[in-house]
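Standup notes
- HV: blocked on the assembly model, inputs below
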Amino acid sequence: MEKNSSLGGLRVSRRSVLAGGAAVAGLMAAPSVLRAAETLKVGVYGGYFKDSFDKHIFPDFTKATGIAVESVAEPTGDAWLVQLEQAARANQAPADVSMIAQVGMLKGINAKLWTALDLAKLPNAAAVLPHLLNKYPDGKVAGVGAVSWYITLVSNTKAIPEAPTSWAALWDEKRKDQLGLMALVSNSFLLEVTAATFFGGTKHLDTEAGQLDCFKKLSELRKNVKLWYRDEAQFEAALKAGEVPMGEYYHDVTGLAVADGHPVRSTFPKEGGITDSGSWAVSRASKKSEQAHVFINYMCQPSIQALLSRKVGTAPTIDRKKTDLTDAEFAGVSSDIAPIIPRYDLYLSKADWLNQKWTELIVG
Amino acid sequence: MRQPPRRAADYGPIAFPAVMLLLFFAVPFGLMIAVSFFQRIEGGFYEPAFVWSNYARFLSVFFGRVLSFSMMLAAGVAVVSVALAFPFTYLLTRLRRRTQVLWLVFLLSVLSLSEVIIGFAWATLLSANAGISNLLVMVGLLDAPTSLSPSLGAVLTGIVYQAFPYTVLVLYPALSRLDPTLTEAARTLGASPLNSFFTVVVPALRNTIVATLIMVFVFALGCYLLPQLLGRPQHWTLSVLITDQALFQANMPFAAAMAVFLVLVSLGLVGLSLLVGKKENAA
């Protein structure tokens, strides 16, 4: 049932894509332009993510729709957003569609970086969980949930035989000079972790006094941190080797390291893992809006969401009951413990203040 | 005898490099200065304006400390690199031509390594699991392997490693042109090789040494990756914070203001050291 309706949607959009392509070809009267117009540039996080998409997702998409995909490796953090915005000012689009994390998504909305999406051309997006649809203040859709992921408490099983159960393990005196944490306030989400672990929840961050409480508690953590990382590969290598035996990291990638036989584990602490998600968004400088809609619609199908969970290790952005994921498969990418939801609003309204406090905290 | 240029056409040969310099250095630098006065929009990007707030934010004890650490680190790198590279290059120029070429090719190939590879390689070399401390344990100098990174020493080592080939390449022409009869004269008058090196070679090339120190200093000031990979947050240079602002906070105006400040301070320091050198030479 699901599949049929999605195929129907595809057929309609595909026809309009062909029409659009023909119009371009007619204008330019050059067949090579038609082919170029059919190539959609899709930005996904470089490294393991991009490799998995290149292998498991894009070839099937091209087969199903006739639209060729050129994948572009994008950096994490706001770096890609900055590049997209700078390029859009020059009317260039380094990628037509990009996977963007939530803070970046909201910043892009403020800068009107994203093309408004037409839900009529995205029938499958109706299944996407409502909080994973990003909207402009006027209600237009700016982004559609692509994948969800968790940041959890990870540790090296050789160096730390007993699995930790709470984020409070980071503050343990035994962990002196042993932790690896993310270096930026807006990607480590440690303020939220502190609030959830010691102050009863992220609501404590509503006020400046509450934020300062969390900064104060975090400053106790400093002596335990060996590595404040921006580069994920650096932490991953150090974690596998036991050089930095504990820290915060992505649940999906840690799962892959476990599967490869490395002595590491990912724990959902009792306060919850940190959930974050990436959305598909289209740069306003892109001229491939039609193809981008086809792509986003394709990615929202339950079968593709399940495939992503199995092959990339991400959590689905649609209700899991719509997918054919087994309980074991779902447990591998998610958890029943209620997650810590980042306070994205703070990273917009108080971005510079938080960044300054944070830098002063860790640089000391 | 070559005549000094008289007509506009005589300046022809330098027109091309001058235009290139203008196009690819002066214009981008001008744009950066312009952006440093733009208005930051929190939670967004920036819009054209003329405000001083980006510079005002920089003028704080915190950034003053980061700036002075960056300067000290760059100065340390310059001194260590020149102290290592000067005797090395001197000995190199005494070798057979073929051997010299081999060494220079090897040093040039080091330059082809990316900063990322250098950073990861040193992180591994200085780690407790696979690092050189294991060798020290084997020969009995250490009781147990320890991790030497992240630390100030690791940052310094990494940047010196990266700067060393440049230093040699800058020193090489001057040292290879040095008249060998100078040291021969010193030797015939009874100076030991070490003595003649310090009393003849080093003073004869004082200006070259100062110029090289300045070049390595400026080179090290721009390092932003190695301090992140090999250092703790207190070893992050101003360049690291500039990268943070530009790439991760999307705060181009503040990043530009910090970069302009860094350029001005380093230009000032270079000018000062040249001035001091001139006075000493005149005296």
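- HV (later): unblocked. The mean pLDDT of chain B is 89. Chain B has one domain: 60-282.
- Next: hand off to the docking folks.
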